[in-house]
Amino acid sequence: MQYRPEIDGLRAFAIVPVVLFHAGIPFFNGGFIGVDIFFVISGYLISTIIIKEKNKENFKLTSFYIRRIRRIIPALFLVLIFSIPLSFLLLMPNDLKDFGQSLISTLFFSSNILFLFEQNYFASEADLKPLLHTWSLSVEEQYYLIFPIFLILFWKFGLKVILIVLSLIFIFSLIYSEIYFYSETQNFYLLHTRAWEILLGVFAAFIIYGKDFPKSLFLNNFLSILGISLIIVSIILFDKDTRTPSIYTLIPNLGAFLIILAAKNGTFVQRILSYKFLVSIGLISYSLYLWHHPLLAFSKYRFDDSLNFFYVFIIIALSIGMAYLSWKYLERPFRNPNMINNKRLFLFSGFFAFVILSFGIYFHISDGELERFNGKDKKIVTSLSEGPTYVEQNLRKIILKNFEKNNKKKILLIGDSHAEDLLNSLVESKLSNSLNITGYRIPNSCGVLMIEFEKLRTFSSENCKSQPNFFNSEQLINLMIEADQIWLISNWREWQLPFLKQSIKNIKEINSSLIFFGKKDFGDINAREFMNGGLMSWTESIPISVEANKINKFLRTNIPEETIFIDIVKLFCGNEKKCNNYDGTGVFSFDGDHLTRYGALTLGNKIKNDDKVSNILIK
Description:
Elements: H1 5-22, H2 33-55, H3 61-90, H4 93-107, H5 111-118, H6 135-154, H7 159-179, H8 184-189, H9 191-209, H10 217-237, H11 250-262, H12 268-273, H13 276-283, H14 285-302, H15 309-335, H16 342-365, H17 375-385, H18 387-392, E1 409-415, H19 417-428, E2 435-441, H20 453-456, H21 474-482, E3 485-489, H22 500-508, E4 514-517, E5 542-543, H23 546-558, E6 564-566, H24 568-573, E7 578-579, H25 597-609, H26 611-617
Parallel strand pairs: 1-2, 1-3, 3-4, 4-6
Antiparallel strand pairs: 5-7
């Protein structure tokens, strides 16, 4: 295959925005489209190799896969091995367990499927997953497994049939990615919604090999300039809210497609992309992609996302340095069969695959090596680690459950994750034994409000806009009528406040016995601080957020007088401005917002011991 330096320059145009996007550099909000460009480049390069070898009748599937192993495995395994000790030192047990799972899935090139069930790529916490970026490698490797076999099976039918079938797959994949955007994570991570991007590169390979593209210098100049302009515009204008992949990402992908086709010798774009600096970045782009994300993730994890520009610059420079060393001393030697023969390649791959797999399994079955902590530390870190899973475990068991037939006080608990916290408090303190409780959960971003949902759609999150009215449930209405008390609790947001009076009025028309709970807040708390020696700082008073104080003040003065209002911050902290998160025995909150098991027990006991609140809620 004839070397095209401009393709390495295009790789630089792909990797630099990705790195700067992950680093949070301004004006690169759309830098994630660099991965999409890589898909187009991969489709082109791999297809070109296969097509040429098939035409010469010397294509061997085993040789193809061995070349892929030489290209992908050495640098990948180095980064994985490097990440293992850092993960052990820095990550909380639940995160280390997740890291172990990502090690295993990366090893089997299925991490895109793992992250499909774990994390939205654009969620803030996603930046803290060291191996999140391996999802794209998994997509590419899945393509490498399928596409050569497809060509082998269809080659005998001729080029026309192959292109028709590929065109149908392209159309299906593009339409699927556009229409089936009901699941953002599914759309983002899976091969069938990314196939059309790779196929653009495949089509470019067939066009170039067939010499079907015009040779006009003017036309090639125009199209290649258009191509690079489409990429630059996408990097600047796209952001995390841009649907991807979708019809929008056709813009940068078409840009890459046009550059591959038209950036020929003599064109302006070819000269630009062939500059030595860009080519050099392109040559190390694979290793740079591998290194930058773990280094950024571990740094953000250790320093609680508070990386200033200086630290970001150091991390990027370190990533480039590590990438260069990986490329020079690992990638290049392993790609040369004369330096590393197949036997040594398989010994290297097999040994380190075993090591990586062993650590992945161990981190998983040991629950993130919980035994590295002792005594009180173990109890605290267990409480912090189980947080998100623990919070939701009780309420989901009683959602829209009919009241039991007994003489206990009937409570209908309606709310978001703060309702889950309140129920956990009752369960841990055994107060729930004297109550007949059922529940209903509404996502916070949709609003725990009994309002015509059309009025909320402007304010609620994108995912909520396709949801029905949560209060438009006959079963819920019947439970509201039957309940002795309705408890309404939420992590109230400012956009919800103007709707509260009408919501309360609507609820009280069904059942006048309404208890309204305020917003809970423990200040700026992060469980990762425990790994950084920050536990003792939680014994000091931590300022409650300005937003929480503002909202609770609004609630106290605007909730109708006949509605009972319970201020959880005041009940728990005894102070409306500051609160402790550690009392010498246990930690109350793992994120400043939700309760640990110990925090739930503490709140339950405070409810039990406060005569006024206890009389309202329990008796």
